[in-house]
Design goal:
By secondary structure, the protein is α+β, with helices and mostly antiparallel strands. It has five helices and twelve strands. It has helices at 6-16, 76-92, 146-154, 162-171, 177-185; strands spanning 24-35, 38-46, 56-57, 60-62, 102-108, 117-125, 138-144, 190-193, 195-199, 202-206, 225-230, 233-238.
């Protein structure tokens, strides 16, 4: 059976207008390292039979009740950071210290998404150790330069979700790990609440600051903060 392109899935969901499942809290950690070629991030390919199947993602998963143990009630941020560290160890075998992780962004998917994860993104320097995947939930891993990952997506070599694409786009401006972490520390973590609309060229993810965000009109004149997911290449615009 031919796999449905991600752009077509988003278009179908947007046109359906139906809400997905109740949202769950989740967390992911962007593991970074310096190489002779420049900044690299660890990417994992999900098993095609589970959520985000076949996509290349950062290590992460849902926040479990155990992640809240001995935390104050309502401390969702600390629980998310603990979940990110736990998931990284489960998926890669790497032990990431919670205190080393810097909040990068927070993502809320549109109501139409079948499985909705409210996700904190953290960034951290990758600890020493060998990456070990289970070949179950995670089927492959690779170290990629951010720009390289974006180019591989447009070439059809890998599949990315919009939050991963935008995160890689931001990281592509950083020369090394220190610069990436300094960028994250120097700002308030940005919150993205995604709205999907459909154009003739393909689906468009809209975010705060875009002229069409409130109305859902992709052709509204004015400021841009969007990801146009065209079949001939994705384009992130802001400004």
């Amino acid at each position: 059976m031919t796999k449905e392109p991600h752009e077509d899935k988003l278009t179908r969901w947007a046109q359906s207008g139906k809400s997905g499942e109740a949202a769950v809290e989740a967390a992911t950690v962007i593991l970074l390292r310096d190489s002779a070629a420049g900044l690299e991030t660890l990417m994992l390919r999900k098993n095609s039979k589970i959520a985000f199947g076949g996509m290349w993602v950062f290590p992460g998963g849902r926040v479990d009740e155990g992640d809240r143990h001995e935390l104050e009630q309502g401390d969702d941020f600390a629980a998310a950071r603990r979940a990110a560290a736990r998931e990284a160890q489960e998926e890669t075998g790497l032990v990431v210290a919670e205190h080393s992780m810097v909040a990068f962004s927070h993502w809320t998917p549109p109501p139409i998404t079948p499985r909705r994860f409210l996700t904190w993104f953290f960034a951290a320097s990758c600890p020493r150790g060998e990456v070990v995947i289970d070949d179950g939930e995670i089927k492959d891993h690779d170290w990629m330069r951010p720009r390289q990952a974006l180019e591989r997506r447009d070439a059809g070599d890998i599949e990315l979700a919009p939050p991963t694409f935008v995160t890689l786009f931001e990281l592509a401006r950083c020369g090394d790990v220190d610069a990436a972490l300094a960028m994250a520390r120097g700002r308030t973590p940005e919150r993205f609440q995604t709205r999907i609309c459909v154009s003739d060229a393909g689906p468009i993810a809209l975010w705060h600051g875009d002229a069409g965000y409130e109305s859902g009109a992709h052709d509204a004149a004015g400021a841009r903060h969007r990801l146009s997911m065209r079949k001939d290449g994705w384009r992130y615009e802001r400004g």
